[in-house]
Design a protein that fits this description.
With 257 residues, the protein is α/β, with parallel strands linked by helices. The protein contains 12 helices and 10 strands. A 6-stranded mixed β-sheet has the order 1-2-3-5-7-10, sandwiched between helices. It is globular, with a radius of gyration of 19 Å. The N and C termini lie far apart (38 Å). The protein binds acetoacetyl-coenzyme A. Acetoacetyl-coenzyme A binds next to helix 2, strand 6 and helix 5.
């Protein structure tokens, strides 16, 4: 089976996953998504991995679902699409994912970027949901996650016109947290990953889960979840270490316990 993913690391707690299907601008066929979800299975199980960076090429993070593969599927084929399982795997990854996006992040590519917890974009990045141009619509979060991230009006504009937005607009809209020169995008994402890798792993995990609940729960439920998670952390050795280290004016040594 082809492997469309380069896996590097972990180095200083960060694993780098690079989509590598340049002949199709990293179009996300089933195999690409399988490679990605299997790599995330490995990263989930590896205690040395504390954060994952997902990136593509300078020209394209990913230009969407593979249109040829999609064209070969009829209604039943789409209903039984094996890609759905891989999308779900990416969505339930418990460690932080940072996307380093250069070039095109369109359709499924934009949807993949939105699965990340932190999104860093090169100045050349273009985010869009062009499915409407193909007579279809987004099917992996390009209406739901997009609306939650950039608001309804811009999400409607993008999904109904198919027009992409540039990195600056994506920053203004809150889709990305930072933009930088394209050649620095991956390094910036790795630096963020390394910063996270030095934190207490259980606190990182529960923080990610809690922030994500902001999309799934109303405020009262979300606040209850947050308080519960905060209380759970009181039972960890790393919390004790963090508080002791502060008072002893030294760096904490977290062990994930
Ligand atoms: N699927 C399959 N192949 C793709 C592709 C895709 N999504 N995007 C690009 N490619 C292929 C092209 O067919 C081309 O292959 P050949 O050289 O064999 O012809 C190669 O990648 C290079 O692409 P272009 O020559 O088109 O490059 P460009 O620089 O002129 O244009 C682009 C770049 C604007 C991104 C253009 O390729 C494009 O519009 N791509 C399609 C984008 C799109 O519509 N994405 C949404 C897909 S549907 C979806 O994503 C649904 C979902 O997840 C649920």
């Amino acid at each position: 089976m082809p492997n469309y993913l380069l896996v590097e690391g972990p180095e200083q707690g960060v694993q780098l996953l690079t989509l590598n299907r340049p002949e199709s601008l990293n179009a996300l066929n089933t195999e690409v998504l399988r490679n990605l979800s299997e790599a995330l299975d490995d990263a989930e199980a590896d205690p040395e991995v504390h954060a994952v960076v997902i990136t593509g090429s300078r020209k394209a993070f990913a230009a969407g679902a593979d249109i040829s593969e999609m064209a070969a599927r009829d209604l039943v084929g789409i209903l039984e699409d094996p890609r759905v399982v891989h999308w779900e795997r990416i969505a339930r990854f418990t460690k932080p994912i940072i996307a380093a996006v250069n070039g095109f992040a369109l359709g499924g590519g934009c949807e993949l970027a939105m699965h990340a917890d932190i999104l860093i974009a090169g100045e050349n990045a273009r985010f869009g949901q062009p499915e409407i141009n193909l007579g279809i619509m987004p099917g992996a979060g390009g209406t739901q996650r997009l609306a939650r991230k950039v608001g309804e009006s811009l999400a409607m504009h993008m999904a109904l016109t198919g027009e992409p937005i540039d990195a600056r607009r994506a920053l203004q809209a809150g889709l990305v947290s930072e933009i930088c020169q394209p050649e620095l995008t991956i390094e910036k994402a790795i630096q963020i990953g390394r910063t996270i890798a030095r934190k207490a792993p259980i606190a990182v995990r529960l923080t990610k889960e809690s922030v994500r609940k902001a999309n799934d729960m109303n405020l009262a439920e979300g606040l209850r979840f947050e308080r519960h998670a905060f209380t759970v952390l009181a039972g960890t050795a790393d919390r004790q270490e963090g508080l002791d280290a502060f008072r002893e004016k030294r760096r904490p040594h977290f062990k994930g316990q």
